[in-house]
Inverse folding.
């Protein structure tokens, strides 16, 4: 039997971790500071208050070996304002993207493509079209790739991942 | 009755039963000092530097087991305190540090003596608070003490703006702690403890590995009892010196980079490690992939995050070590253990083959001799602090530590300048004991202004300066690993230490023979004043044995005759 680092699978996996914290000053900097101080990765981070409570939910997407993910969960749990940490394996993930496209592009093409990704045109001005889509992060990535190839977007804004256990 | 925020700080300290506070006043904390002036519940000791105030509170806490308290002002007052906080954090010392902050109306404007104190202290405290208004101050003070001493202990920082200390409010301190997000586990899981005992009973060469948690949780009597009942040998970390007692036949010594041969070989050969409040620090494990390769590991720690951080245990037990040891000692009777006599005697053989030793000399004093001799003369009557460097390792190796809390040293952070102020805390907290600080000619200059504090408050700290005119430990590494290129470690330019301490109002002795040392130590103890005993020691003595960085525990440099 072997005990140490290589005991764990060293394969890096993507993980969604949600953290329920007391809604107070500087709690986010405690979380982020923990990641930076210990050299952990943050791929995406979303925060919002949980309705009708004094808590907020922070959803973090990170990549690491099982050992690193275990440590992240333990170290997060150790922070005083943290109520609960969930490491998810079976979740519904949603990411939203807003994309601004020059007005000279074909409007109906844009609309058709957005519809394919469950998106739609949100706004049209004399300069630009804004489309949005909300879907699984990997599908959103694909949507962005296609748009980039085809429509020369002016600006792309992603929300980061929110997740809920199935 | 309404009182102001400053008075609330005083009341909180009083309610917590703290009898001494270390600190340094300044603009933003003046309201609190005004209340300190008016009260007579506790003594305030004015250090000469904020860093020293924190180290003194730290030393006080380590020696007494109580929560240490320090008070500093905003800006530079607080930034000076950071090294002290980090030192206490790394060694999990319960402490509350209160700092003044600029008024809430000024926060964020780069006001005079404003700094983001909670931003700075976040990575080096267990928890911290910026108090926003008077209503939350009593709760925060109560929580600060609770968080500092519960679970895995640690320093807590409370930053209080000046207007909050001036505002009047209700002080309701007797309230129960209500922290839904902070509920440390104290009781170990009984089924897991039972499983661990089953594994221990089957092991052929089990080893108890004791760390600083044994001291912090006051579990040392229980650990001695468990070792005795099971006849399992024990190794101690630097932070656990004294837990087993110097003459305990089951103690195989300190392990790690400068550990004893027997201790490191025990760790190398064991088939089951019982880790009690130790965290597998890199200075202990040596090269990790060679560390206790085939051993089963039982890891008891109050901090779940310490379990599995470096090595992955087979039997993790989260809980307060004292409570877990009580369970272990109770349940141990249900098990039949193997006979470990041959394992113990094998380790004793190692101890005989390669005892901890040094080559003594009649021409020049060996630093190890000084430590050993002090131990012979004062033994358990002294509480020993150190600074950081070669003298620290020699003290850990050669002083006969007999009980927990007898050895006060900066382990995790390795803070030079810790020794003298920490010894002040010891001298104040343990007035019936002799306070000895082993230090080096490098370390002592880092907080030497505290001699003034010692004189003012009659803190009879005896500083034994092992003077080798070098930054010794760095010099040792330069000699061994950098072809003797002694870059910036020659400290030949020195003050006259005897005149220096006399200028402060203490007593000083310079010694270069063994007879002079005995006499000086005797005089220093009798003087009951802060003292220097400057011992001119062998300049080129190295700390041995040594496991070079990145090597396995069995690859030790040993002393050659």
């Amino acid at each position: 039997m072997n005990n140490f680092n290589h005991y764990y699978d060293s394969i890096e996996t993507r993980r969604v971790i949600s953290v329920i914290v007391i809604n107070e000053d500087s709690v986010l900097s405690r979380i982020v500071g923990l990641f930076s101080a210990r050299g952990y990765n943050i791929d995406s981070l979303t925060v919002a208050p949980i309705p009708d409570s004094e808590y907020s939910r922070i959803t973090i997407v990170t990549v690491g070996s099982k050992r690193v993910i275990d440590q992240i969960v333990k170290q997060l749990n150790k922070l005083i304002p943290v109520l609960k940490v969930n490491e998810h394996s079976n979740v519904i993930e949603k990411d939203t993207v807003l994309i601004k496209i020059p007005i000279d592009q074909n409007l109906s093409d844009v609309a058709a493509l957005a519809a394919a990704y469950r998106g739609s045109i949100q706004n049209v001005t004399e300069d630009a079209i804004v489309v949005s889509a909300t879907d699984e992060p990997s599908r959103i990535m694909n949507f962005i790739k296609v748009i980039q190839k085809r429509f020369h977007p002016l600006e792309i804004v992603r929300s980061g991942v929110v997740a809920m256990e199935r | 009755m309404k009182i102001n925020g400053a008075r609330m700080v005083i009341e909180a300290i009083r309610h917590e039963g703290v009898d001494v506070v270390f600190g340094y006043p300044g603009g933003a904390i003046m309201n609190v000092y005004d209340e300190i002036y008016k009260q007579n519940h506790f003594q305030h000791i004015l250090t000469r530097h904020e860093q020293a105030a924190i180290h003194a509170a730290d030393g006080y806490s380590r020696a007494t087991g109580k929560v240490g308290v320090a008070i500093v002002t905003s800006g530079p007052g607080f930034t000076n305190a950071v090294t002290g906080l980090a030192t206490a954090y790394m060694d999990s010392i319960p402490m509350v540090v209160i700092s003044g902050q600029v008024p809430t109306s000024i926060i964020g404007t780069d006001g005079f003596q404003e700094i983001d104190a909670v931003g700075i202290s976040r990575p080096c405290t267990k928890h911290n608070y910026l108090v926003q208004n008077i209503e939350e101050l009593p709760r925060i003070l109560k929580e600060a003490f609770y968080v500092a001493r519960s679970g895995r202990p640690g320093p807590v920082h409370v930053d209080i703006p000046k207007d909050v200390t001036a505002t009047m409010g209700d002080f309701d301190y007797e309230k129960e702690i209500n922290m839904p997000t902070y509920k440390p586990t104290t009781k170990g899981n009984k089924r897991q403890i039972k499983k661990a005992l089953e594994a221990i009973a089957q092991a052929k060469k089990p080893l108890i590995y004791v760390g600083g948690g044994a001291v912090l949780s006051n579990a040392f009597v229980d650990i001695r009892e468990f070792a005795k009942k099971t006849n399992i040998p024990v190794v101690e970390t630097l932070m656990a010196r004294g837990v087993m007692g110097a003459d305990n036949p089951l103690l195989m010594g300190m392990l790690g980079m400068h550990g004893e041969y027997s201790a490191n070989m025990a760790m190398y050969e064991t088939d089951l490690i019982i880790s009690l409040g130790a965290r597998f620090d890199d200075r202990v494990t040596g090269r990790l992939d060679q560390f206790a390769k085939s051993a089963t590991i039982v890891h008891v720690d109050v901090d779940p995050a310490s379990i599995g951080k470096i090595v992955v245990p087979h039997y993790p037990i989260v809980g307060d070590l004292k409570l877990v040891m009580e369970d272990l000692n109770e349940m141990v009777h249900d098990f039949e253990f193997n006979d470990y006599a041959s394992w113990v005697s094998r380790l004793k053989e190692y101890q005989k083959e390669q005892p901890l030793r040094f080559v003594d000399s009649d021409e020049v004093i060996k630093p190890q001799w000084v430590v050993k001799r002090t131990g012979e003369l004062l033994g358990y009557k002294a509480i020993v602090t150190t600074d950081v460097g070669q003298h620290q390792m020699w003290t850990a190796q050669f002083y006969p530590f007999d009980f927990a809390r007898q050895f006060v040293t900066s382990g995790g952070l390795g803070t030079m300048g810790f020794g003298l102020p920490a010894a002040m805390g010891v001298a104040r907290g343990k007035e019936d004991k002799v306070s000895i600080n082993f230090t080096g000619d490098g370390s002592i200059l880092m907080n030497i202004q505290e001699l003034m504090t010692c004189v003012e408050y009659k803190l009879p700290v005896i500083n034994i300066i092992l003077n080798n005119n070098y930054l010794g430990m760095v010099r040792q590494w330069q000699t061994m690993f950098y072809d003797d290129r002694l870059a910036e470690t020659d400290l030949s330019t020195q003050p006259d230490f005897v005149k220096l301490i006399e200028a402060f109002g203490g007593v000083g002795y310079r010694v270069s023979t063994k007879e002079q040392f005995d006499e000086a130590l005797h005089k220093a103890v009798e003087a009951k004043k802060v003292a220097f005993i400057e011992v001119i020691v062998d300049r080129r003595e190295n700390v041995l044995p040594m496991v070079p960085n990145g090597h396995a525990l069995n690859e030790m440099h040993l002393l050659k005759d």
Remarks:
- The mean pLDDT of chain B is 96.
- Residues 132 and 260 of chain B are 52 Å apart (CA to CA).
